[in-house]
Design a protein that fits this description.
Strand content: 15-25%
Structural class: alpha/beta
Bound molecules: phosphoenolpyruvate
Helix content: 40-55%
Radius of gyration: 17 Å
Length: 249
């Protein structure tokens, strides 16, 4: 079964609500591609205006983070029910920036993964090695650990619907894209790891993205790799270039 490609933008902490609406108006016609899942993962305050602006288009809206409790005294957090109430279908979990600046760990990512599935939200779970880890030759061990802990107690049926984004930290926002070979090698290893945790059928269904300075030039080769099912795109998702990335073929 051919996996459907998924190209997601990660806006990070960019775009005020009024800027967001303008960007969606600009990108709407450019990202029209019915063969690909197109997701805009946007700051929480932009979710509702982006949903409104994206109405009638193929754009799906995702969140950039979510808390693992249902509700209560967690000042500043966003609950899963708040997201589903307005129709959010995807959430980015464990982005390296959240791991680095906001004390996110694979254990908290796992709690969020379980909560997302419970609420029918598809997680885009990020993993990736630092430059030091790559140079030490421990990339695969590190990624396997992130995947194994992230998917703890996740059922095979849930895992099949998940998205994993392989994002080498040294390639995020640096303009340095991993080579297609490097990206494919790690994405294949992630799929192997999923087959070991679950089975071949689950590994064949789960979608694995590459992220890290993806642009209109690098996307076609990257997305043509056997184990790369699309991309998680930061900087270029805020520009018209995102349309070219979505229409990479
Ligand atoms: C990201 O934020 O997930 C990302 C990959 O950023 P960039 O494309 O800017 O490297």
């Amino acid at each position: 079964m051919a996996r459907r490609k998924i190209v997601a933008g990660n806006w990070k902490m960019n775009m005020t609500p009024s800027e967001a609406v303008k960007l969606v108006e600009t990108l709407k016609p450019l990202v029209a591609n019915e063969e690909v899942d197109v997701v805009f993962c946007v700051p929480a305050i932009d979710i509702i205006p982006v949903m409104e602006a994206a109405k009638g288009s193929n754009i799906q809206v995702g969140a950039e983070n979510m808390y693992f409790e249902e509700k209560g005294a967690y000042t500043g957090e966003i609950s899963p029910a708040m997201l589903t109430d307005v129709g959010v279908k995807y959430v980015v979990l464990g982005h390296s920036e959240r791991r680095e600046y906001f004390a996110e760990t694979s254990e908290t990512v796992n709690k969020k993964m379980l909560k997302a599935f419970e609420h029918g939200i598809t997680p885009i779970m990020c993993c990736g090695e630092s430059l030091e880890q790559r140079e030490q030759g421990i990339t695969m061990d590190w990624i396997r650990q992130q995947v194994k802990v992230g998917f703890l107690n996740v059922t095979a049926d849930q895992a099949k619907t998940a998205v994993i984004a392989y994002e080498p930290i040294w390639a995020i926002g640096t303009g340095k894209t991993a080579t297609t070979e490097q990206a494919q090698e790690v994405c294949a290893e992630i799929r192997k790891c999923i087959a070991e945790i679950y089975d071949d059928a689950t590994a064949a269904e789960i979608r694995i993205q590459y992220g890290g300075s993806v642009n209109a030039k690098t996307a076609p080769d990257l997305f043509a790799q056997a184990d790369i099912d699309g991309g998680l795109v930061g900087g270029a998702s805020l520009k018209e270039e995102f349309g070219k990335i979505v229409n990479y073929k």
